[in-house]
Design brief:
The protein is 28% helix and 25% strand. By secondary structure, the chain is of the alpha+beta class.
Length: 123
């Protein structure tokens, strides 16, 4: 049985802390749910044996409409790793087609995370 458990509470503060420690203060606003007018999908898991954690979170570039989902892994000993199994991207807008594309991109990222947890994913 896997030691990984889904964690459906707010995003663990360690993701924000380690992200900003690695990439600089103020670099992780997308991790704060209060920044968005609309809730953004996120998923996270904790390994109850090791204390490691994994999260699927939305990310974007300077183009506020181009978004994607990334997987961040917190090893038990500290640091934060961006896992790149092929980051699913989409265009953010209010129309139903774009929301469907966002949800599909999120599902793909969650599937990558589950494959990592099950040991079939690669770093």
């Amino acid at each position: 049985m896997s030691a990984w458990r889904r964690y459906d509470s707010p995003l663990l503060p360690a993701f924000h802390e380690r992200f900003e420690k690695r990439w600089g203060e103020g670099t992780a606003p997308f991790l704060d749910p209060e920044v968005h007018e609309q809730p953004m999908p996120r998923a996270q898991w904790i390994n109850i044996d090791t204390g490691a954690a994994l999260a699927v979170v939305p990310v974007w570039t300077d183009d506020e409409h181009r978004r994607s989902f990334a997987m961040f892994y917190l090893p038990p000993a500290g640091d934060i790793w961006l896992l790149r199994p092929g980051i699913p991207d989409y265009i953010e807008s209010e129309n139903l087609r774009s929301i469907t594309l966002r949800n599909d991109a999120f599902k793909k990222a969650v599937d990558h995370a589950k494959a990592f947890i099950e040991g079939s994913g690669n770093l």
